[in-house]
Design goal:
- By secondary structure, the chain is an alpha+beta fold.
- It has three domains: 18-209, no CATH class; 213-241; 291-395, Cytochrome Bc1 Complex, Chain D, domain 2 (Orthogonal Bundle), CATH 1.10.760.10.
- Helix content is 45%, strand content 7%.
- It has helices at 2-17, 36-48, 65-68, 76-102, 115-142, 156-161, 179-188, 204-207, 214-241, 291-295, 305-323, 346-350, 353-362, 376-393; strands at 22-33, 54-57, 166-171, 193-200.
- It has a four-stranded antiparallel beta sheet with strand order 2-3-1-4.
- Helix 11 crosses helix 14.
- It binds heme C (HEC).
- Heme C is lined by residues 318-319, 321-323, 337-338, 340-341, 343, 345, 347-348, 356, 359-360, 364-367, 370, 374, 382.
Length: 425
Amino acid sequence: MLKKFLNKIDELSSLLRKPEVRSGQLYAVTALFDNPNKIIAAAETVADSGYKKFDVMTPYPMHGMDDAMRMRESKIGWVAFFAGLTGTTLAFLMMWWMAGVNYKNVIGGKPFFNLPPSVPIMFELTVLIGALTLVGFMIAIFNKLPFMSNPLQDTDFIKHCTSDMFGIYIEAADHKFNEEEVKKLFTLLGSNAVSSVYYPIIDEGKTKTPILDFKFMSILIITAVLTSLTTYLVINKLIYLAEPFTWMHHQPKVLPQSKSTFFQDGFGMRMPVEGTVARGYIPYQYKGMPDSLIKNLSNPLPFTKEIIEKGKKKFETFCSPCHGYYARGDSRLHGFFPAPPTLHSDKVRNWPDGNIYNVITNGQNNMPSYEKQVARDERWAIIHYIRVLQRSQNAPDTDFSSDTTKTTVKPDSTKTNSKADTTKK
Ligand code: HEC
């Protein structure tokens, strides 16, 4: 089977490589020159005489050839520009539709559709669509591929052009083409090797449009399927069957929510042993205690600039999405969560610190508990910061006296305005 297949490939490729038999149909008239100045002059004359379908072949790139051939600037740049622009626009519309219309998701209270995070996608799609379109255009339009059997192949002309001479040819398809005239022109220009190249006779059924060839397509599809299948089997199956890849997968363990035959009650997930505390976790000792006791909890942290700044950071991370940066209840959640009341109410201002601590720890009505996310000291730091915010919004007259540096009020949470002298310490 494989041998037959390889033979077939050999057969096909030899067919493509050596189109020995030539038909009577003229493809082009070619001419070889033995010096670069002559070929430049030839290119200029041919272009100026109005021939369009001609080309020059030299063994190495030659400066000034584009000008000599009167080549205009390639339109490929415009293709790239418009393809890229299409990519940018498509990505922009896609992001706007997905994030702003179809699947609105609150992410940290940011606007649904936002330009900066869309820029990478827009960039990617610009490059992707630009590149793919360019390749497609280059192949199909600019280079007119697939063109499997150029009639110039296997001619003396092309052999010299790739080693020691400079060639030019005019296609018979040119509107001005006349075999005798072209030959005369080339001879006049100083060529000593003018010849006519005829189309080769080839089995066009197989080579003209190989993409439509049944056998070619079958081989392509079989290869694709085999490759994908092998990849799939190796990555998804083999790795779970063969050691040592399976060691991690098959280790003795209980998955979350799964049952267990080891414990009598059949549960895989266990409660912590009674009376134990996780490392680094400071439990809330006042759970279920009467309000009067909670109120007496006082803030254990000093009222220093560093602590207030830490409180600010934590407040802006954990509280501000709902409460707003200034605790005014101006939530950034666009109504996806009930907006909380302002923390500048007389009620909260008069609350002792212990009360706020209690709300953060246990939650209150709609507000969930932040016990797990915010550590104990962070909660107290937040409370210091809330006091600063409250004072900033409700400053007593004494704050405006000329001698502000002397207002060193002791932090006392039971007073309406806890102090906010951040300049101290
Ligand atoms: C998910 C949104 C949300 C977050 C985040 C949040 N809160 Fe609240 N908060 C609320 C809501 C809603 C209420 C009102 C609850 C109610 O109806 O009693 C509230 C109430 C409060 C109250 C009581 C206000 C009053 O007048 O009764 C305090 C104090 C408070 N929050 C502090 C905080 C602090 C401090 C944080 C950060 C650790 C925080 N909240 C984070 C939604 C939130």
